[in-house]
Write a structure and sequence with these properties.
Number of helices: 21
Shape: globular
Largest sheet: 5 strands, parallel
Radius of gyration: 25 Å
Structural class: alpha/beta
Helix content: 40-55%
Strand content: 15-25%
Strand order of the largest sheet: 3-2-4-5-6
Length: about 575
């Protein structure tokens, strides 16, 4: 798929000023200025993430109310139910809250509830509230959900059940009538960092609780590995406090991880040290698989296991769920692509809406993302759910999916989500009408540029500028993630040396030359670019810097992201 390249243009004067202040190569200054880092102090904070960048939890609106209510529950010996979503952020948030409360309250008074994805769906569920009622829980702490549960919080109040909500999703105008709502995005909240995930908000609550009880710092800092996994998996910005929490959490993961995390690392054969990339692509899918294929309770039980052997038992179940998930989403993706490939009208559309009653509800979101890799456009994948059709939608960067669904609301029974992802329910007889309306809305409102994937590069670099010193500074820019991705470079007018080759009909091993310097590069799944390499014409390449280790020797190599004729 062709990409449009966008190379950041940075202020030369600011770049030179930073080069002088930091005594670094201008290439590094260009990257930093492009990320909003313009002076020595900002660079110092950026390159040394740590506890000094963690904000005071008491700055969060309602924190005093939340802590007071929990301390009252402890004093009254009340039972507390922790309710969380079935994804990585939800299950890890539940695990850290559950373990912290068991330290400061009678453990028999603490339990948790994870809704079943297929039967209850996302967020606080009626079944969860009924569970609290039946088992005499007067207090529910909802983590990574609850901000939109106005009616269910009201329903719980009828039975004398109170809520504390720890959420990070965008609130509606009307908020639930909870005892306390912890959400930096709510109106009137002066908390300085707005991009925490559910695990981050839960961590701020246990930090405040610990301080109210004058507990040592290690009592809550021990859960930073769970917070790092939540941040990595929830694809929130890797900036500010999130970056500091991830940096500290990764340190914990690589030195003394939670038993469940260690078990998953062992089973997946994850090389040490772990990085955000390995958490996102290796650990997170296994945790998510529990809720997608079966019951996410086992993910929490793995995290809270007292012994490694017990955690390993649950990790094995998650590992098996993930194998099932891979097989299921692969077969559904194959079937979905065949539907599009075999239909000329569908191929020519600006959106994709597909429905098959037998598709597994737990993986339709993944399938939608896979389809975007081939057909780059807003995509909805639906399946049968009881009497209705339900499914997941994924967008392309720049297009507001939620607004598009709102414009189609006459065809829907319910919908929710945000700019990039959403879910919906509709009557099966309305699928065709909805599909037509969605295509009409997308066609009329999408900027044609958004139908071509964008590759954003930090700077133009010459081969003569690339060395291990540059690479080592880039390594210190970790952890990487949204708004702080690994730097991408573009080198122009490079030539093939004639030694490049096609590997397994899929990948390219490249040997490229510029300024009499030769660099090797690897281009995964880019066999379609082989004719360009063979053409003999000058090439422009986009890439990240990598290291190739062979027989004890380390050499810089280019991880190629795209190739164009100059």
């Amino acid at each position: 798929m062709e990409k449009r390249w966008k190379i950041k243009v940075t202020d030369e004067q600011k770049g030179q000023s930073l080069t002088d202040a930091l005594k670094v190569h201008p290439l590094i200054s260009r990257i930093l200025v492009g990320r909003g880092i313009e002076n020595f102090e900002e660079a110092k904070v950026y390159f040394r993430p740590g506890t000094s960048q963690l904000h005071d939890p008491w700055l969060m609106k309602d924190m005093d109310l939340a802590v007071s209510r929990i301390l009252l529950a402890i004093e009254r010996k009340e039972k507390i139910l922790i309710f969380g979503d079935y994804d990585v952020d939800g299950t890890s948030s539940v695990a850290l809250m559950y373990q912290m409360l068991r330290k400061i309250h009678d453990p028999v008074c603490i339990d948790f509830y994870i809704p079943h994805r297929q039967r209850e769906g996302y967020g606080v569920s009626k079944a969860g509230v009924d569970f609290a009622k039946k088992n005499a829980f007067p207090l529910i702490i909802a983590v990574d959900c609850g901000i939109k549960s106005v009616h269910l919080v009201e329903y719980a109040k009828e039975y004398g059940i109170e809520f504390i909500i720890c959420d990070h999703h965008l609130p509606d105008t009307i908020l639930p009538a909870a005892v306390a709502i912890l959400n930096p995005k709510q109106k009137g909240c002066s908390y300085p960092y707005k991009e925490l995930c559910g695990g981050g908000v839960a961590f701020k609550l246990i930090t405040a609780l610990s301080r109210a009880l004058s507990l040592p710092e290690e009592e809550y800092m021990v859960f930073l590995d769970l917070v790092a996994i939540a941040i990595a998996a929830d694809i929130v910005p890797m900036t500010g406090e999130n970056r500091a929490l991830c940096f500290l959490g990764l340190k914990k993961i690589n030195e003394n991880p939670n038993h469940g995390i260690r078990a998953l690392m062992t089973l997946s054969g994850l090389a040490s040290p772990a990085s955000i990339t390995s958490l996102v692509f290796t650990i997170a899918p296994r945790i998510n698989a529990a809720g997608r294929m079966d019951d996410a309770r086992k993910a929490v039980l793995m995290f809270v296991a007292d012994e490694y052997e017990e955690a390993l038992l649950y990790a094995n179940l998650l590992h098996a769920d993930n194998s099932d998930r891979r097989e299921t989403d692969s077969s559904i993706t194959e079937e979905a692509l065949a539907m599009i490939d075999g239909d000329e009208i569908m191929r020519s559309r600006k959106s994709t809406v597909l429905f098959r009653p037998h598709w597994h509800k737990g993986v339709v979101g993944i399938v939608a993302s896979r389809l975007i890799e081939r057909y780059y456009r807003p995509t909805i994948v639906l399946t049968q759910s009881g009497e209705f059709a339900s499914g997941s939608a994924r967008s392309v960067p720049g297009f507001n999916l939620y607004e598009a669904l709102h414009a189609c609301r006459e065809w829907l029974l319910g919908y929710g989500g945000h700019f990039a992802a959403a879910g919906m329910t509709l009557a099966t007889e309305n699928i065709e009408g909805f599909s037509k309306k969605f295509e009409e809305v997308v066609s009329e409102t999408i900027d044609p540029r958004f139908l071509i994937p964008e590759l954003e590069a930090d700077a133009i670099a010459r081969f003569s500028e690339l060395d291990f010193q540059i690479y080592r500074i880039i390594e210190q820019m970790e952890p990487f993630g949204p708004e702080n991705y690994k730097p991408v470079f573009v080198s122009e007018r490079v030539g093939d040396t004639g030694y490049s080759k096609l590997l397994k009909e899929k990948h390219l091993r490249l040997y490229l030359k510029q300024d009499d310097l030769i660099f090797s590069g690897i281009a995964f799944n880019m066999a379609d670019k082989w004719p360009l390499v063979q053409s003999g014409q000058p090439l422009d390449i986009a890439y990240t810097l990598d290291v190739n280790e062979w027989n004890g020797e380390r050499k810089l190599q280019l991880k190629i992201l795209d190739i164009k004729i100059h």
